[in-house]
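Office hours follow-up: a student asked to see two folded examples consecutively, so here they are.
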Amino acid sequence: MTTQRTLAVVSAGLSQPSSTRLLADRLSAATARELELLGHTVTIEQIELRDHAHAIIDAMLTGFPTGDLARAVDALTKADGVIAVTPLFTTTYSGLFKSFVDILDKESLSQMPVLLGATGGTTRHSLALEYSVRPLFTYLRADVVSTSVFAATDDWATGATQHDGRDDSVNPLPQRIDRAGRALAERVAARENAGPADPFATAPSFLDLLR
């Protein structure tokens, strides 16, 4: 049976065009392709944090998001899976990325399948995904897939942006993107569409109280 799956793709790139957005697009395309192979139709919700930068700061000051930012947060929390990609500055996620995560409800990503990606100048920063970004989403109790993708500037230099079946040793980025997309797709496909929990599900009925 064909089912609908929604992916929320968070990109924290600061420039336009952005290598961070490029990686986010490649990861979402790979995930969508794998989900379609598994028999699902896919909707992708793009959340470009650069467009919400001022609203994110306002939300940090007021305690709640409004307008387009509120709609973006709603799309994120209702998605079946999340792809989150940040540039790395000073060996960690960007301030914009962290500020966006800070305005989310602490339970909003609980058990949510999440694929992590990051971009940076050189591969020496790649471990920041594991010691900085992954613990952030683990704290939120997200279901973070084991495969994450870091793309350095040199990874884009050959122009290979998708896996074409040639020698992956020349540029392993397309292979890593495909592998990560497959891992997230499998996790999303296996996830039950339980919907939001009913806060009154365990409350006794009025008839039971009368008895």
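And the second, which I mentioned at the end of office hours:
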Amino acid sequence: MNKELVGALDALEKEKGIKKEIVIEALEAALVSAYKRNYDQAQNVEVDFDAVKGNIKVYAVKTVVEEVEDEQQQVSLEGALKVSRGYELGDEIRYEVTPQNFGRIAAQTAKQVIMQRVHEAERNVVFEKYSEYENEIVTGEVERQDSRFIYVSLGTVEAVMPVAEQMPNESYKMHDRIQVFVTKVENSTKGPQVFVSRTAPELLKRLFEKEVPEIYDGVVEIMSIAREAGDRAKVAVRSNDENVDPVGTAVGPKGQRVQVIVNELGGENMDIVEWVDDPARYIANALNPAEVLDVIFDPENERSCTVVVPDYQLSLAIGKRGQNARLAARLTNYKIDIKPESEMTDNAPVDDNDVDTEETED
């Protein structure tokens, strides 16, 4: 058994990349527990494993004391000096106590330890592989679902998509191929656990990077995303090249680029708006397709404003169930209160030239 165990450790290191020293350390600790359990011993023991010959020896470790109170843990100075004249109070003495039939127990324990380390190594390989995909898009296949999750096969691991991360406008069937965003990878006791999403704003960002080379290259930059998954999203973009139109680039010729993303997300509508340094213009752009006459900032709250729109565009600015205004607020990180022009003229003049309302593509 001894030679076989040494060979197994060598093979484990070569094939699985598991250091022999790590396995031996774990094996020695396991053998200590096995000895105490099988021989009903409470004494302090150590196990030495000879990595060359494979021999296993058990030692009882006792501390040299003046007066022995616990024979399992202590030895008198007088008794220690009989072993060697060099011992002093506080020293530790190791006595070999290896049982004759300990080899059988050692073999069983070694097998369990090695199998455990192999499983851990395999889990770590999968964990490290999918940790690289965290915050990225991967393509998987729907395997099954229950009341809590959609289970998506990513090849060597099964990812889970919680209900909150599933698109409300989508139904998932077995063997469907879907693109998902990896939100988190955990190395749990049950193995690597990968969490994925179809609703994360970052999924939308990665899809734009795939479809728009200028975004992937950084010529056009996505500054903010507000999304109500499966229904509508607003994406703010800016150009790092004055010769490149950020909105037109993201939308693509005849809307082809953005249409690919809309199709991937089951018809989710996209508003692509230009991000600008001027907060008033940016807020006006964010409320696209509504026309904005004025943006009045609250002097007591720098992240709050009132937006004035023509009366006939009030419902368009607010949007169905308040969606347009809500997404614009999230996109800009401003609290936006929308007022019709007629309501504001009774209180303060409105300057139509305060805001540049350049039209952006829908």
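Two things to take away from it. The first strand starts at residue 45 and ends at 49. Residues 2-125 form a domain with the N Utilization Substance Protein A; Chain:P; domain 4 fold (CATH 3.30.1480.10).
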